[in-house]
Design brief:
The chain has 94 residues and is mostly helical. It has helices at 3-12, 17-31, 38-43, 47-57, 59-63, 73-80. It folds into 2 domains: 1-35, no CATH class; 36-85, no CATH class. It is built from 6 helices and no strands. The two termini are 22 Å apart.
Length: 94
């Protein structure tokens, strides 16, 4: 996904300006300025390399959870690769 696609979609659907602003804010928050399809990229990698990337990306999260502090690395890896990334904007209920 890229910014241009989002803008074209919003124009095509003639979305109101306030809604466009919310959508733009969501994508900026969700992707922090980096619009790319992470699932597609990871889907092209080998299973082992994908696992390595996911473990690297989640390292700070895992390090902050006491439950994982002394857990077997294979167990932690297995759990982390099952996580699904979700973004929730502050103050907006899912």
């Amino acid at each position: 996904m890229n910014v241009k696609q989002v803008e074209e979609y919003m124009a095509y659907r003639k979305l109101p300006r306030t809604m466009r602003a919310k959508i733009t804010e969501y994508f900026e928050h969700r992707y922090q300025g980096k619009f790319f399809d992470e699932d597609a990229i990871l889907g092209e990698l080998s299973e082992k390399l994908r696992e390595d990337v996911i473990n690297y990306n989640c390292r700070s999260l895992v390090a902050s959870v006491p439950f994982f502090a002394h857990a077997d690395p294979d167990f932690v890896s297995e759990v982390v690769t099952k996580l699904k990334y979700e973004v929730f904007q502050p103050g907006i209920k899912p």
